[in-house]
Amino acid sequence: xxxxxHLAEAAEQKSAEVTDWAGxxxxxxxxxxxxxxxxxxxRQGWKWRGSLQSDLPELPxxxxxxxxxxxxLSGRYHxxxxxxxxxxxxxxxxxxxRSRAELTLTDAGISVVxxxxxxxxxxxxxxxxxxxxKGIAGKVLTEGGLLVVTWAHGDTLxxxxxxSDRAAEHAxxxxxLNNLINTTEGIAR
Length: 189
What we know:
The chain is of the alpha+beta class. It has helices spanning 2-12, 21-52, 169-188; strands at residues 71-82, 89-90, 99-105, 109-113, 120-123, 127-133, 135-136, 139-140, 146-153, 156-164. Strands 1, 2, 3, 4, 5, 6, 9 and 10 form an 8-stranded antiparallel sheet that branches. A two-stranded antiparallel sheet has the order 7-8. The radius of gyration is 27 Å and the shape is elongated.
């Protein structure tokens, strides 16, 4: 008989009625307003950083006929920073926008084609160094997982980070770019 009594009691039990709908709706609305406010503050910070970096000149455009491709890379553009300061993100002129990227190395330089973001050219005479690194402005990978290209834009040295869909391509890019930089410097002297 005892099990039947427990079943009858369990069948009669109900959850308590929610009587304070206004309080719950108020908390949810307050939380949503707080999230919207934090998002607005982040957006204002991004705009402020862009206005501080407004002295950067416009990015060079990708030429219509850049020449024969020496190397190509398909992957992701992770952003640009002030050279040597991997957390100082550059946001002016769309350089802070992460995106897919198609890189093509030609005699003109590195063409960076980004769907949904500004395309730009890193002119060959602006190249300073190429290296493998592990992080750039909010993106940290394993050692050597990121191709970082240092280049001059106006009076500012920038580090731009790229990650190929095939990470084995990074070493060829570093070697080719550094050879190109050394050859260009030898001609300039």
